[in-house]
Automatic annotation (TrEMBL):
Name by which UniProt lists this protein: Lipopolysaccharide biosynthesis protein
Annotated localization: Cell membrane
Membrane topology reported for the UniProt record: Multi-pass membrane protein
TM annotation in the entry: 7-26, 38-57, 78-106, 112-137, 293-317, 323-342, 354-372, 384-406
Superkingdom classification of source: Bacteria
């Protein structure tokens, strides 16, 4: 438990740096571009993250899961890199289709479509889950945190330069693209120094040969990751398609500030997953403790958003963004719920129940996206936020029920040998 807390501390340090610098570049982008311009910017960034989220495999989980054995991470890393290359190829095709079709359903000017396509390609080339997995496998959270800090630093510096030299949507997209490339290169360099990366091990068949359930796990975690993107980035695209660029920009600001807890939930999940893999016997108790801690932290964060959110929005983004205050509060509540569910979801995945975790995430997410039009017709951006809140609540309830079932199965299995011996 001590190592887990220490690792979370490293990750939270990185999140803290990111949070502070994100306020800088968010303020620069919103105040320089205005509500409509920031809406265009938000749509392009969402397109890039959507493509990466759908095409990218959660290869860090594969490295941690299959690289922890006596044979080392070589084959697991080779399998992960092979999947990364496939992600880039498939993602490029997806990006082309998405950017070409955007003229028919997104409020993006024609001159920004090529900017969007370029950003999508850069985001694909900057996929970095494999080196992140290598560092987590070795519990090198300090090195990972230092490497990942490159992104917010470059992004903040780029935003300053864009605001001064090129105060346009294109200028800020350039800054974001530079940050993606910089952090990916840094992580690969740091991971390569910690573990020699043998490119001759790149293969689609070695890991599945030794682990028969490998492809099922791969597709389950990929689909779960895609759904996590669907609940955020695809939602921004759909909000823009339904309400226009101003709605997209407003929702992006509310989401970034209100759902900072979702990033925290992902931090907890990424820290606890390797521990759960290495300590199966204590996994349930560890997940329960983390959920209890998350419940307290989530409650405090919601209160902060409720009482200080409106002046914070005006201070950071400007007076025209104060209209998204209640949207931000609703998203903060959703983030608190996700924070509680993070350890439960990780427990399911570490126990080989990635398919169950996917199902618990899939149904509420699809339902929320299906109801988005109705919700926005009813209450605009607040309605969209309520779909996120509802999907998060249903997913976490599902995780909780699945974990209880998993616990009962474990109790039954351990009880039977004792019964036989008594007989």
């Amino acid at each position: 438990m001590g190592r887990l807390i220490r690792n979370i501390g490293w990750l939270l340090t990185g999140r803290g740096v990111n949070a502070v610098l994100s306020l800088v570049y968010l303020a620069l982008a919103t105040r320089t571009l205005g509500l409509d311009g920031f809406g265009y910017f938000a749509l392009i960034v969402a397109m890039g993250q959507t493509v990466v989220g759908i095409a990218n495999f959660q290869t860090w989980q594969f490295v941690v899961r299959w690289g922890a054995g006596a044979e080392g991470p070589g084959e697991a890393t080779g399998f992960a890199i092979a999947l990364d290359l496939m992600s880039i190829a498939l993602g490029a095709v997806l990006a082309a289709g998405l950017c070409w079709s955007a003229q028919f359903w997104l409020p993006l000017p024609a001159e920004l479509l090529w900017v969007a396509f370029g950003y999508c390609l850069v985001s694909l080339l900057a996929i970095r889950t494999t080196p992140t997995g290598l560092l987590r496998l070795r519990f090198e959270y300090g090195k990972a945190t230092a490497a990942e800090a490159v992104q917010p630093v470059v992004r903040a510096l780029g935003a300053v330069l864009a605001a001064i030299l090129l105060p346009t949507v294109f200028g800020f997209i350039l800054a974001w693209a530079a940050a993606e490339i910089a952090v990916a290169a840094t992580l690969w360099i740091v991971a390569g120094r910690a573990d020699r990366i043998d490119l001759s091990q790149i293969s689609f068949w070695r890991i599945p040969r030794d682990h028969p359930g490998a492809w099922k796990f791969v597709w389950s975690t990929n689909l779960t990751g895609s759904l996590n993107v669907g609940s955020k980035q695809v939602l921004i695209l759909l909000v823009g398609a339904i309400g226009g660029e101003a709605f997209a920009g407003g929702f992006r600001v509310a989401s970034q500030l209100g759902q900072a807890l979702v990033s925290l939930a992902q931090t907890v999940s990424k820290a606890i997953y390797p521990e759960l893999v290495h300590a199966q016997d204590a996994a349930h108790d560890m997940a329960r403790r983390m959920a209890n801690i998350a419940l307290i932290g989530g409650g405090i964060a919601v209160l902060v958003a409720l009482f200080f959110g409106r002046p914070g929005l005006v201070l950071i983004a400007g007076p025209e963004f104060s209209v998204v205050y209640w949207t931000m509060v609703i998203l903060a509540i959703a983030g608190a719920i996700e924070l509680v569910g993070a350890s439960l979801e990780s427990l399911l995945v570490s126990a080989g129940r990635a398919g169950t975790a996917f199902a618990m995430r899939a149904v509420p997410t699809v339902l929320g996206l299906a109801l988005l039009q109705v919700a926005m017709d009813w209450n605009g951006l607040k309605g969209a936020a309520f779909t996120v809140l509802g999907a998060s609540a249903l997913s976490v309830i599902g995780f909780w029920v699945a974990v209880i079932s998993l616990s009962q199965i474990a109790i039954t299995v351990t009880a039977r040998p004792g019964e036989d011996e008594t007989a």
